[in-house]
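Researcher: Batch entry, complex prediction.
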Amino acid sequence: MAAAVTAAEAGAKVLVLDEQPGPGGQIYRGIEAPGGAGDTVLGVEYHHGRTLSTALRNSGAGYLPGATVWQVSPQREIGVSVDGMARIITADAVIIATGAMERPFPVPGWTLPGVMSVGAAQIALKAHGLGAPDAVFVGTGPLLYLIAHQYVRAGIAVKAVLDTTPWHRYLTAAPYLPGALLASRQLLKGLGYMRAIRQAGVPFIKGVGSISIAGNGTADAIRYEKSGHLHELAADHIFVHQGVVPNVNLTRATGCDHLWNGAQECWRVVADTWGETSLAGIFAAGDATHIGGALAAEHEGRLAALAALTHTGRLDPSVRNNRGAPIHQALAREMRLRPFLDALFRPPKVHRVPADDATIVCRCEEVTAGDIRRTAALGCPGPNQLKSFCRAGMGPCQGRLCSLTVTEMLAEANNATPGAVGDYRRRPPVKPLTVGELAALAGPD
Amino acid sequence: MFTEITAADNSTNLAFTFEGRMIEARVGMTVAAALLAAGEVATRETPISGNPRGAYCLMGVCFECLVMIDGIANQQGCMVLVRDGMNVSRQLGVAVVSP
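Model: Structure tokens for the complex:
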């Protein structure tokens, strides 16, 4: 939204292609919708999204909801489908802001109906005003505490919050605390969530070890280990979370370079300080490039728009630099908390690389951890060879939910770094496209 | 089960059928959300082993919420808004391609 407003205000012809039915991405999901939970539940940070959506609507930028982009070529030809009709739109500059998605949480039973991501719980709350009483929330990371807090504020009963943050993370994160204290407002906010959750009487169990989910056809209980003992909680809905990672399917399919980000244990898009990727005229901003949160994404969107304007000859580079300087500073301030958060909430290895061979890794093709290990033992330099041997990554999600797990498992098997092992090769279309749509493709605009 | 956190008002004015069952939904609800609100968590069976699956991410990333809508398969329920009179059914196993 911020990028579109910046570019439109400079007089550029701007089109926003949004797969969702309304603006806001996932963080401000449902910001214009009448049916969601109100600001009192979701908080003042969520309300800020309305400032952005209003600016977008007033900016003169074109906004197309329900538009599924299935391709961006290096020559900036965008394949998009709206209402079952595909077209190709060519642009002088493209800003990819596909956002983040949740890290997979491969534990036994995670594929049972009723198990959902914390993001799903937030979407149900924000966009549809739906909550699941007596659910268990499990994992690590700020979003886990946020959703539990939002549930408490909405008066929805929370069965328990199971925190898998290992004790020793507090030690490893400590060196980053001085930098984090400069972002003390956000830190205090997070501590406030935890206090409110406890004060509401919600069982908040820390130091949870390995977990598994049980059920017959649908989820009905979660088992967790703590201090050497096994516990069980009955629940029909279990919300899992262990951080968010960039959704790189589109940037990958487009051909942008990526690097392994060891601090966040995921890929990041290679881009300069303005967000221009390794492909000229193609920019990336926000959580799609590296995780920084909503406010950082806004700043990156504005910077990418300024750079795109310069790239297309609409803005003098010196003006771009002058306008960009305070935005770069604001972005740097936003990112101050990141090293601390990344260190503290690094998901435990046991939930990134499943120990139990029966745990499903590739949900679409039902490939288990045991299958992956056996296939890796045959000798796979990377995920693409593994994919052709055992089909992991071949399903409709195109590796969105299994690629990180597979890369890490292969790195372990090959005694290599995830960066060296690599990622699935993604090819367009990155979202389903019917043969009929392709055949009836209208010409370039 | 998911329930509405605010009191129902007159905006619950869409209805669709799911495997013979009529389900009401508010305007602006996605099919996946409406199914969850109606207690339907298992909305497909996997092509490989017929295992039950249901919506996981609600944002178009996981493809677990695939359902058949008005005769067209492989619709991501979380990306499709409910329309009045829709006919939704589970996607069971492997697709059968008619000759």
